[in-house]
Amino acid sequence: MFSENEIATLVEIPEIRKVTLEAKQRFIEGEVSMLEITNHDFLSLIMMTPAIGVALANGSISLFEELALNKMARKMSKGGYFMKVDPVAHAMNYLIKNYMNWEQPFFEVIKQCMDHTFNKEQLLSMKSSDMVDPVQRFARDLMTVPYIFVRFLSTVILNDESDIVEQRSISKVEYEKILDIGEKLGLYDMPVFDSFCRTFEVK
Fold first, then answer.
1. Is 0.70 surpassed by the pTM of this model?
2. CA dihedral of residues 189, 192, 195, 201 (deg, nearest 10)
C-alpha cells in the first residue's frame, strides 16, 4: 500500500491536489462540518475507499477488517498520531456510514490520480504472460508494468502489507466487488488486472 511519503508526493501534483480539495469540501459539507483534516490525510481516506468497499461487501465490517483498515489509515496519514485519534481513521467512520454516497465521487479522484501518474493506454495494450500457474503469471506480468501501478493496485484492493504476489482466499461477494472496483476505475480490461484477479481463490 502507499506510504506516507508517497501520499505526500501525490498530493503535491497540482491536478491531484485540486480534485482532492474539491472532494474534501464536498465531504465536509455533506457529512461533518467540524471535521479537521489536511489534504494529505483526505487523499489517504480517498485511497482507502475501494478497500472499505471490499470490507463492506459481506454487509458489515468485521473486527479484523476494522483493525486492518485502521492500520492502513495510520500508515498513509501524515504521522504523529501514535497516541492520538488518527484523522483518517476518524473520517473513515463517516465514510463507512454513507459509503454508497461517496464511492463514485472518490473513485473519480482515484482515477484522476492514476491518469496523472501512469499511462493506462499502455497497460491496456500489454500482453499477459503465458505461464500456467496464476501466481507465477501475475508475478511475471508485474515485471512489465510501472512501479506506481503496483502501488495503486496493492492500495486500492488490498488493505494489508503482505506480498501482493500470493494466492488469497476470498468470498464470492468480495471477489465480485473487486471486479466492480476494477471496472469503475478503468482497470478491468487490463491484462495485468485480469492476471491479478486470477490469483484469488473464490470460496
1. yes
2. -90
